[in-house]
TrEMBL record:
It comes from the Bacteria. Its main location: cytoplasm. This is Glutamate 5-kinase. Belongs to the glutamate 5-kinase family. It catalyses: L-glutamate + ATP = L-glutamyl 5-phosphate + ADP. Its EC number is 2.7.2.11. The keyword Kinase applies. Keywords: Amino-acid biosynthesis, ATP-binding, Cytoplasm, Kinase, Nucleotide-binding, Proline biosynthesis, Transferase. ATP binds at residues 20, 180-181, 222-228. It is an enzyme of class 2 (transferase). HAMAP family: ProB (MF_00456). Pathway: Amino-acid biosynthesis; L-proline biosynthesis; L-glutamate 5-semialdehyde from L-glutamate: step 1/2.
Amino acid sequence: MVADLSAAFLPASCPLLVVKVGSSLLVQPDGTVRREWLQTLVADISARHKAGQRCIIVTSGAIALGARRLGFDKGGRASLADAQAAASVGQIVLSGIWADLLEGQSLAAAQMLVTLDDLEDRRRYLNIAATLDRLLGAGAVPVINENDSVATEEIRFGDNDRLAARVAQAAGATGVILLSDVDGLFDRAPHLPGATLLPTIDKIDGRVRVMVAEGSSSGMGSGGMASKLDAADIATRAGIGLVIASGLRDHPLLALEQGGASTFFAPREGGSARKSWLGGRLTVKGRIRIDDGAVQALKNGSSLLPAGALSVEGEFKRGDVIDISADDDIAIARGLSEYDAVDAARICGHRSSELAAILGTVPRSVLVHRDQLVLL
Ligand SMILES: Nc1ncnc2c1ncn2[C@@H]1O[C@H](COP(=O)(O)OP(=O)(O)O)[C@@H](O)[C@H]1O
Ligand SMILES: N[C@@H](CCC(=O)OP(=O)(O)O)C(=O)O
């Protein structure tokens, strides 16, 4: 397994790597930054930079840092207003530390603060991709965090694990390393007796999900292991390998190279860049249930026709992302709807020749076009 890891993440085989640093790792319980440790991570990044690998840093910690300075309790997470205020105070400190440490290695830090919407909207997503491309081409090191001080509940990731996976997709990275305060994914909460580290995961299914306790144990982070699994799901579907590893040791990237403990999520094969963007979208507005014949048709690469649809749930507009399921709640596909929810419900189960009479207009022949659809 160590061989897999090295091949997936060393400069020769991974030209662009995303490294995410969690709050629990960056901020100490007394609210100060683990600066000496961070310096060893930046030294690792610099060594890889010299070996030809470009790195993007996704950093948490703004809320935890700001909360301490403003004297907020519950790590600044008692309310959205607290989190927003704490983030504005903490982010400026956080950026300063990264800029300072990278400068110490003669690397230019490039700050980008993004919201969920920036990565869900196709045009803004491509814009971020272009900015990252230009920065990396110029040899800068992007340092990214969520724009917490303006993000509201509806438009926020809330954890930086999924943000790191989405950034990796946008930038065309081939590896993501999530550094946390655990060695990786254990078969149960790591403090429980008998907990065993799982070195590789090929598929994130229900058996893997039940191993994970909700929330952050340190009280500093927000996502916990559940959001790391979501991130692994987004990344691996996009053909990107992801590793969860401990940042509790100095030189954490070097430690990983030398065979340090971790969990590796293997990338999946296939899928276009556009489809992987679609599959990773987090804002799903509705659901269409389909019959067995339609399930088979989608698996064979066809578009979804109204004739195979059974029912419609949710309120969505044309162009919104919807899930497609058979008779349970597990989505088998995700795509952009050609119809709003009201019209989609009206034409469910009807043949193409009947649509004009039902809708009174020249209809679009498919509910979801195969180019706008990804199997999950
Ligand atoms: N099955 C599991 N394996 C590993 N860690 C787990 C598991 N279930 C819950 N956790 C908890 O997830 C925590 C890491 O998440 P979090 O505190 O959000 O870190 P970060 O700030 O690095 O994102 C670990 O400290 C651990 O206690
Ligand atoms: N954007 C937030 C980080 C969100 C968060 O806590 O993420 P994590 O530590 O990865 O669970 C911040 O800078 O405080």
